[in-house]
Structure formats: C-alpha cells, structure tokens
Write a structure and sequence with these properties.
single chain, 142 residues, mainly alpha, 4 helices, 2 strands, oxidoreductase, metal-binding, heme binding
Length: 142
C-alpha cells in the first residue's frame, strides 16, 4: 500500500515529520527569521488553538505541533504560560542585568546559553540518542 502526495510517493510505514523549524524560519513570513525579534508577532492577537485550526500562514509558531498530532493540552498550556507571565509582571520589577561596574549588559540571545548537562550518565544518553537520530535522518538528506 502507498499514497501519492504532491507528486511524492509515500510507501506504507513512511514516517512524516513536520518541518517546524523551516516553517518558523520562513523568510517570506519573517523578515529576519534567524534574529530574535519579538516584533514579528506583534500583530498576532489570537490564541494558539484558534491559530492551529486556521491557515498555516496565520500561525505564529508550531510549538504545539500540527494536524492530528496537535498537543491535546494546547488550551491548558497556553493559559498557564499567560498566567505565569502575568504573575511575573505583576510581582517583579524587571531590569536589564548589570555588569560589575553597574552598566547594563547586552542581552544574550544565543540559543546555547544556559544549558548544562546534569552528569555523565545523562550526557552519554544524549550523545547515544543523538547518534541514533542522525542515522535515522541521514536517509532524508539530499
């Protein structure tokens, strides 16, 4: 058994993975997709569940997945994130970080900032599973 989608043959058992990174880095949609810029969603006022069921061009992100695999907790997750942000803004004055001489430090938007593996066992697991994933995805590289 097989199926054809947009001219591509999909044999039975084919794994299809949404290209969330590509969708969220589309230069036709975002002027500078590789630059952290909250302004690119400034006009987006709809909630994620409403956007998830609409046209893909209107979605501001794919963090909750898409289609049949859409996160069933999308409503709860988005409301909890909104509530958490509201409590932070309500409860705290938020200022830029300062260096040792009291000057504002530049905001570090590097995605690799702040992540440190907790122990050798976890590092070994991450490296092993990353290697396995590379083997799986190698067949899809052109």
């Amino acid at each position: 058994m097989y199926d054809w989608v947009d001219g591509y043959l999909l044999p039975k058992g084919t794994t299809i993975i949404i290209n969330a990174w590509g969708l969220q880095h589309d230069p036709m949609r975002f002027e500078n997709p590789d630059v952290f810029d909250p302004e690119h969603i400034a006009g987006c006022t709809k909630l994620a569940p409403e956007l998830a069921n609409g046209a893909y061009e209107d979605r501001d992100h794919y963090g909750y997945g898409a289609g049949r695999r859409l996160c069933p907790g999308i409503h709860l997750a988005e409301r909890n994130l909104s509530l958490a942000m509201a409590k932070l803004v309500w409860g705290f004055e938020i200022f830029p970080a300062l260096d040792g001489e009291g000057r504002e430090k530049a905001v570090d938007t590097d995605a690799k900032t702040g992540f440190e593996v907790r122990g050798k066992t976890r590092e070994d697991t991450i490296r092993r599973e990353f290697g396995e994933a590379q083997e799986v995805f190698a067949g899809y590289e052109s």
